[in-house]
Design brief:
With 412 residues, the chain is of the alpha+beta class. The chain has 2 domains: 8-191, no CATH class; 279-406, Tetratricopeptide repeat domain (Serine Threonine Protein Phosphatase 5, Tetratricopeptide repeat, Alpha Horseshoe). Helix content is 43%, strand content 17%. It has 16 helices and 12 strands. The chain has helices spanning 8-11, 14-28, 132-137, 159-162, 193-203, 215-222, 232-247, 251-268, 279-282, 293-303, 307-320, 326-340, 343-355, 359-371, 379-391, 395-406, and strands at residues 34-35, 45-49, 52-56, 61-63, 69-74, 78-87, 94-99, 123-124, 142-147, 149-155, 167-173, 183-191. The strands form 2 sheets. Strands 2, 3, 4, 6, 8, 10 and 12 form a 7-stranded mixed sheet that branches. The chain has a 5-stranded mixed sheet with strand order 1-5-11-7-9. Helix 12 (326-340) packs antiparallel against helix 13 and helix 14 (359-371) packs antiparallel against helix 15. It starts with 7 loop residues before the first helix and ends in a 6-residue tail after the last helix.
């Protein structure tokens, strides 16, 4: 994810900076952090992806500007995770500190970070220079200064690390340098299915899920609030306690919960339903072209995650393409470059999407412009491309256009 920010904090004289940090750190003692998902009632959805469990929040959720920060829990056996945080209404910026401790030492803050250096803002354990998670686990604190959006993610986490997680990660807002209304977020984790199934079978009584194939991952998450995860005979007692507590809820508490739900529902209406560039949610390499074998081979390599080979074949296919297939190949090339996810690759992806006339390509251009991915945020351009996609019958774009018209986003 490409972000825009200014090194505002680093321009402050060092003595003043230390003073501000001391005030900020003192306030953390009284901070409450919004949890990305809850242990008692996680409301998570499950699926199987490449033989592993995919755990995700199905609907977008919100963080109020009045919160002091947010936190999310990384359980053992997590192979990858992705938290996307966007501003409601595309206004303002976000500043703060990312750490594995809710109260951290000022000397642990990493300074002089280059804004385009992804070493501190993403983790891919196949690439030595992209290890945000390693810094966090070593008690380093990563500053975020005037970000227009935040993505906290890691991939290819090795067993040597993911078997020793069970840790909270905290993000503390620096409210002296933060301006936004509310935040909307999505969250996804990939967990090792084989290890979780074995672990649950050996230690726990199964908690039933509506879909039996997810009984074990459901049991795993329902027990995360236990300090060491309770044994089978203790689980029964805990379940009984939960049932008793549910019955003891007063009518007043139920009414408050109902009002909160209503307020949340109203709030959702003001947010575009499609708020992140998630290629799989659009279509995974949509362009099967019966008249171009190179394109079809490229799709096979894409599914195997061999993106470089896929890109090479698509570039060859582009040379041989005719008028009926060129839009398809341009779109596929845009998908490949968007997966690389660097400043330059996102700009190339945008150029390819602009060369395509597919409804999905127009929709992606709307997303790029709305969240400012690789380019400056532009609500007018976002509305333009969502409209072009909607006219071609893309339902997700149609919903975005309706909401942007209702709340007059990008119309002037």
């Amino acid at each position: 994810m490409i972000i825009q920010k200014n090194n505002f904090f680093l321009k402050i004289p060092k003595i003043s900076r230390i003073f501000f940090l001391l005030i900020f750190l003192q306030t953390l003692a009284f901070c409450s952090f919004k949890s990305i998902y809850y242990f008692k009632n996680p409301e998570l959805s499950y699926s199987i992806e490449n033989g592993d469990y995919r755990v995700y929040i199905k609907e977008p959720r919100y963080i109020s500007k009045d919160q002091n920060g947010f936190k999310f829990y990384l359980p053992n056996f997590t192979k990858s995770y992705n938290l996307e945080m966007l501003r409601v209404g595309s206004i303002g910026y976000i500043s703060g500190y990312l750490s594995k401790n809710s109260r951290f030492l000022a000397q642990n803050i990493i300074e002089n970070i280059n804004e385009n250096d992804l070493e501190y803002y993403t983790s891919n354990f196949l690439k030595k220079k992209k290890n945000q998670l390693s810094y966090l686990l070593n008690n380093k604190v990563i500053p975020y200064e005037r970000f227009t959006s935040i993505i906290i993610e890691a991939s290819n986490i090795p067993s040597s690390i993911n078997t020793k997680l069970n840790k909270w990660i905290y993000f503390s807002f620096d409210k002296t340098n933060t301006v936004f209304n509310d935040l909307v977020y999505s969250y996804t984790m990939i967990l090792d299915k084989k290890k979780i199934d074995t672990y649950i079978s050996n230690h726990f009584k199964i908690i039933q899920h509506s879909d039996n194939k997810f009984n074990k991952i459901h049991t795993y998450f329902m027990n995360l609030d236990k300090k060491d995860m309770l044994k089978k005979d203790e689980v029964k007692k805990e379940i009984k306690k939960k049932v008793v507590k549910e019955k003891q809820k007063t009518e007043k508490e139920k009414k408050v919960k109902k009002e909160e739900k209503k307020e949340k529902k109203e709030k959702q209406k003001a947010v575009l339903p499609s708020y992140s560039l998630d290629i799989k949610r659009i279509n995974e390499m949509i362009a099967f072209n019966k008249f171009n074998s190179l394109n079809d081979k490229a799709i096979d390599f894409y599914k195997e995650k061999k993106y470089l080979k896929s890109r090479q074949l698509l570039e060859e296919a582009l040379i041989q393409s005719n008028e009926s297939s060129v839009s398809t190949i341009y779109y596929n090339l845009g998908i490949i470059y968007s997966k690389i996810n660097t400043v330059r690759s996102n700009q190339i992806a945008i150029d390819y999407f602009k060369s395509s006339e597919l409804k999905e390509a127009y929709f992606n251009l709307g997303i790029y412009n709305y969240i400012g991915l690789g380019i400056k945020e532009d609500d007018k351009q976002a509305y333009k491309y969502f409209t072009l996609s909607a006219k071609k019958g893309f339902k997700r774009a149609q919903k975005n256009v309706e909401i942007m018209q209702k709340y007059k986003i990008g119309l002037n």
